[in-house]
Amino acid sequence: MTVNKNIEIFSESEELELKSSTGELKEAMISISAILNRHRQGRLYFGITDKGKVIGQDISNNTIREISRTISEKIEPKIYPEIDELLIETKNCIRVSFSGYDVPYSADGRYYTRIGDEDRKLSAAEVTKYVLETRLKNLRWDTQPFPDASIKDIGSAKIKTFLKIAGLSARTAANALENLNLSVKGILTNTALLLFAKKPEKFFHNAKLRCAVFAGSSTSFIVDRQEFTGDAFFLIKKAEEYILKNIYIGMRVEGLRREDIPEINREAIREVVINAFCHRDYFDPDSITVLVFKDRVEVRNPGILAGGLTIQDIRTKKVSKRRNEVICDIFHRAQYIEKFGRGISFILEREPDAQFEQVGDIFISRFLRKNVGDNEDGLADNLANGLVDGLVDGLVDSQQKILQLIGLNPKISKRELSSKLQISETAVDKNIQRLKERGYLRRIGNHKAGYWEIIKR
What we know:
Blueprint: E1 2-5, E2 16-19, H1 25-39, E3 41-46, H2 63-74, E4 75-76, E5 82-88, E6 91-99, E7 106-107, E8 110-115, E9 118-121, H3 124-138, H4 156-166, H5 173-179, E10 183-184, E11 187-188, H6 190-196, E12 208-214, E13 222-229, H7 232-245, E14 249-254, E15 257-262, H8 266-279, E16 288-292, E17 296-302, H9 311-317, H10 325-333, H11 343-350, E18 355-359, E19 362-368, H12 379-385, H13 397-408, H14 414-421, H15 425-437, E20 441-444, E21 451-454
Parallel strand pairs: 1-5, 2-3, 12-16
Antiparallel strand pairs: 3-6, 4-7, 5-6, 7-8, 8-9, 10-11, 12-13, 14-15, 16-17, 17-19, 18-19, 20-21
Helix pairs in contact: 7-8, 8-11, 14-15
């Protein structure tokens, strides 16, 4: 297809190569591989001299086919360029647009790199070093490009919020991402999408958070289950909120001011959640999981400690190894983490009994709950261990779950029951009334200061 092109000044650069004709196909292959190895994308024209003069190119039925075949045979790994016929200054020319991220690329078995407008052959030692460095970089999920996404997929409001917190400025979202090394030549990286996409779950199935509450110390009886999708900042917030919502909150009064004190230190909870998103293995399709048991809270993330570290190392030697350096850098700029990897020390200073464990390829952070009292020893244990035969026999599912939730928190409100069960408050009232009529439940005290009591049979 011939396209009319306005007059343009052509000058060779690190991303642009000019060839007088397809008689220079061999040299063209060298230039393509060199540009790919240096910049991952570029353009090459046939019919323009290296001085930028448009002289045209004879084009037959086989010309485009020959260029395509030569690229396929000579360039490794394979690339799939766009080849167009152009009319430039009334002369027929050919443009080859190419890109590739599986570096290094060779031309007829030899490796080159682009320095200015010249192609320089790499020595054997340079090739070895280049391959090792490239392979190591490609092993990192957070630096990999995602060519199928575009700047339209990025939430500009998210970028603006981040820039304000980080004390940075940029003309556009695209400019901000480039300055943060989250895009390369307009190609977004995985990190850009994970943190700032409008819908990260569109690109990554594991951009989600799974949460659950259990009646006892095992997973036998589930009380609540929720799943959230979104960017990593949003998911961190939801994880923290979910834990605080489902553990006990005490109160301390200083003067005229009341301060809520959760049974697990709030800062320690936040640090564990952030660590999970910083250090998880994003190649793993599994998700980060928050589990609230009667006696403990666990945050589980796919991916054991990086760099061969052990639990003993991180607890006693105070060392860390970052799996996702770019993600950690953005979290640091957003004031989520320190630069020096003090996460474990920070957690242990606030929760000395915190536990860490690696099971298979899962890393588990665990907090022991402090307020496991008589109320939890009622229905929660009985349901989990089967000690009270027939307590829930004949009850519908909503009524069983109401008893389980009350067993965990006798002061739970009807509004909270409605939210957790995802039924109306009217339906909650009807089920509670039925439980009272059947002798399973009674109210102690008034509406505001009272609590529910499960009647054991």
